[in-house]
Amino acid sequence: MSTTIMPDRRPILSHPSLWIGLGATLMFALLALVSLVWTPYPIAEIDIARRFLAPSAEHWLGTDNLGRDMASLIMAGTLTSFLVAALAVAIGAGIGVPLGLAAAAWGGPLEWLVLRLTDFIFAFPAIIVAILITSLFGPGATNAIIAIGIFNIPVFARVARGGALSIKTLDFVAAARLAGLSNAGIAYRHLLPNIMSLIIVQGTIQLSLGILAEAGLSYVGLGTQPPATSLGLMLRDAQGIFLIHPWLTLVPGVCIVLIVIALNLAGDGLRDAIDPRLKAVGAPNVAA
Amino acid sequence: MSLLEVVGLSVRFGATEAVRDVSFSLERGERFGIIGESGSGKTLTALAITGLLPEGASTSGSIRIDGVPLPGSEREMAQLRGKRIGMVFQEPMTALNPLMRISDQIEEAIVLGRSGGFAQLEVPYLLKEVGLELRHGDRFAHQLSGGQRQRAMIAMALASQPDILIADEPTSALDLITQRRVLDLIAEICARRQMALLFISHDLKAVGALCHRVAVMHRGKLVETGKASQVFAQPQQDYTRKLVTASRFEAPSLQRPPIGGPLLEVDQVSRDYHHASIWPWGDKPLRAVDGVSFSVATAECVALVGPSGCGKTTLAKIIVGLDSATSGQVRLAGARYRGADLPRERRRDVSLVFQDPFGSFNPRLTLEHSIGEPLRLEPGLSPQAHVDRLVESIEAVGLDADMLKRYPHEFSGGQRQRLAIARALVTRPRLLVLDEPVSALDMSVRGEVLALLAQLQAEFGLTYLIISHDLDMVSAVADRVMVMEAGRIVETGRPDEIFANPQHRLTQELMAARLPEVG
């Protein structure tokens, strides 16, 4: 066997996009979490007298058409957006990953069924599912979570199946089968830990897509309902007065853009940080 | 003046020095071999000569061709590569463009190698020179066999009429018979074209058969250089001596338990593969194993040899219960089964050792968990007995019980193969099926693993079924050899008899393809 040339393994620290992305994401998440216990002003407090204020020491980002404090709204809105997207990722991964693993571990008719099911779900964009659910149960953040979650299922199922299929051909899976492990045992013990990094990277990407989807659903009125707020809902509230008060639209819009960029950077960085290690595992990296 | 002169070449990656102070020279028409194990830096040396080192590598020392140092600019280097140096890689499937026809790729190499001329006219001659037919030129890489692909690669390397041909493990992906043919072809072409050859390999016999002069590389350094016959006959360095000894498999002489009654009986086993097709008629099924019958006695060591794709691995999978026979049956110590229906309480009687020691352990589990996994076949083992078994099996393969807490990537290939054997032994099986147990290992480790197997057999009275294409290894360890071709066993006998007087055409070909012993 000849020498395999290994790319120099850089420690995770040396992936700048990962650090910028993760840092910015954590900052937004922290801001959102703080809103649970403290916001500069209560977000439901309407005071028409102080509406359309410019940013000042009292109101850092100004106030909106109902006199609510924009900084407080952004904090609470970010929380809603994160929460909806994260729960949707949890639903998608929680159902999709087992489905994908089962498809890879059992194969045959089960795999066919899972693949057709994911094709079927793929055919409906989140917005259609959301409209369906809303027309049945009424609009709200919970229904947005379910709609985006359903949309996430096939994505995770495919990633899990693809990763598991490539692991399944390795000898240690055959060894486990010889050791009397069932398909479920192999999926849990051998396939899942080895595709975990793929799932984490996909989760980050789905999180950013989920935030966009939540904003979209709230914008068309199918997501979060007042008095709760979300970044999408703030956009919707401000759109009618965009020409007079563009600031009110720009603030939540820029927030959405920044969060999505941060999450994508973190996802890309994670993939870069994890990929070379995945390649190095199993390569002859030690001279015999 | 030498054609190629390398003086004090070092290649570093950051702080690690992969090649250290390597100097050698290559004369016109000379065939020079570099021998080394994986990680010894032999491929990096070749890449440094062609200026194809990966990013992040820095070199020092000088490389001169006809007294002229290698040009610094990538553009001039590419021209030099095209005109003076031809290169043949290890894995021809990935080195050929899958979307271009073979003749187009050869033509491209001719055009890049010089200016003007009618490239198309030369393609047929080149194809003929490497022993391919015209129709092969119209095919794509995936439509050729491994040997044919490697011939196409050689034709491309020859296209620019280079002075130096660099061949990096050109035959290690090929089976025995094809390997011999490709080596003969390289030797013949070098002689005809008066071309210098830099041949890089871990296989002493291949180097010995092909090269006039050899260099032995170890941990980035050249430890010994000299005439091939001299280096192999009277190695000066310990490392070279170790390699030469390891290349001759010597049968370890140990007190063996007596061979007993039949343990495994394979009766008319066939395995058909059906192509996935929407039409129930359509393709004929592919018969990988075709009515094979044989038996293995207790404490016997039986080898199954044959070219790649002859069905030997499929047969092994049926015996250990990973795959099921389409017809026929297997009997293991009285239990009848067809493959995957091997009764659970019998599974611990048979174990499989895999070929690739790097893929046979889950990188995320400690060895304790990996090696202990088969113990779930023995319910009712107390936790203490469980630990005792692990310690017993890891010590049986000559490793420490402390290693159980560690992860597989911390071990070298040879150690991992020992660990794989430990896992196979943990249920105290009666039959051990070994699928190419040493072919993925470096030369110097192979001997150790084989000695270990012999010792374990003497100690525990194990029965072995060894699957291999390596005749030298087989003749050293096996009591009986079965030669397999296209799913059938075509010849059976004691190794000394069968190799001294081969009856079947395939056995004769295998014997003819065997490379001469070194030294």
UniProtKB/TrEMBL annotation, chain A:
Cellular location(s): Cell membrane
Keyword Repressor: no
Assigned keywords, A-Z: Cell membrane, Membrane, Transmembrane, Transmembrane helix, Transport
GO cellular component, one term: plasma membrane
Superkingdom of this protein's organism: Bacteria
Family listed: Belongs to the binding-protein-dependent transport system permease family.
Protein name from the UniProt record: Peptide ABC transporter permease
From TrEMBL, chain B:
Pfam families xrefs: ABC_tran
Top-rank lineage group of the source organism: Bacteria
GO MF term set: ATP binding; ATP hydrolysis activity
Signal peptide, first to last residue: none
InterPro entries: AAA+_ATPase, ABC_transp_ATP-bind, ABC_transporter-like_ATP-bd, ABC_transporter-like_CS, P-loop_NTPase
Domain ABC transporter: 4-244, 264-511
This protein's UniProt keywords: ATP-binding, Nucleotide-binding, Transport
The protein's name: Peptide/nickel transport system ATP-binding protein
